[in-house]
Amino acid sequence: MASSYGTDADKSALRAGYLAARQQIPAPFKARMDRSIDETLLDFSLFAEAPLVLSYISYGNEVDTHGIIQGVLQSGRRVGVPLVDSATREMAFYEIESLDQVSPGFKGILEPDPDECRLLSMDDFFGSVCLVPGLVFDAQGHRIGYGGGCYDRFLWHYPGDKIALARTMQISSNPLPVEAFDVPVDFIVTEGSVWACR
Q1: Which residues face 55 on adjacent strands?
Q2: Residue 39 parent element (H or E)
């Protein structure tokens, strides 16, 4: 699904279109695509060598990250997952040792328990990578998410590398509309490919 500049390319219309398209992917096909993305990510040295991985916890039809998180933890590396303040839409990352430490939070998305998990600071983020969700991405790494702005607020000050996980159908052949506060990702990992955006 291509995008274009103009009245047909506002973010709300693109968001609705890609949400609808994603919901139509048959479950077995989605599972195969996500396994291929996982394998490509594991072969990407920037990810494989990062001592700390910040990852969203997949929800609904997003590219599945549960296996990725478990694999990173089993490798002895550290994992941070986000907690969103529903009032301010500010997002903080907490270190987890197991997915048993998460439970439904903001909009039903699994989040860490701040009483059990350590809040990660800016000092922790240097040398880390952040897996970034989104509905659609372009070749420059610009993305359209769900409209809350939580990730853009966090990524504005994040010093590490930003990696998007996307099925090929989520890559726009034309530039996406961009606003001043939008933060592009550095790399996009798809089925069998890593796209460098910077």
Answers
A1: 131
A2: helix 27-42
pLDDT digits (tens, 9 = 90+) for 59-112: 888 999 999 999 999 999 999 999 998 888 889 999 999 999 999 987 788 999
Q: Angle, to 10 degrees, between the axis of helix 27-42 and the axis of helix 66-74?
A: 30
Burial readout 22-38 (b: 16 or more C-beta within 10 A, e: otherwise): beeeeeeeeeebbebbb
Residue 180: other Cβ atoms inside 10 A: 4
**pTM exceeds 0.85, yes or no:** yes
The structure tokens listed for 120 are: 């990660």
Q: Is residue 135 a contact partner of residue 22, using CB atoms and an 8 Å limit?
A: yes
Cβ partners under 8 Å of residue 185, min gap 6: 132, 134, 137, 141, 143, 162, 163, 164, 197
SS3 25: coil
CA angle 34, 156, 154 (to 5 degrees): 60
What secondary structure letter does DSSP report for 86? Answer: T
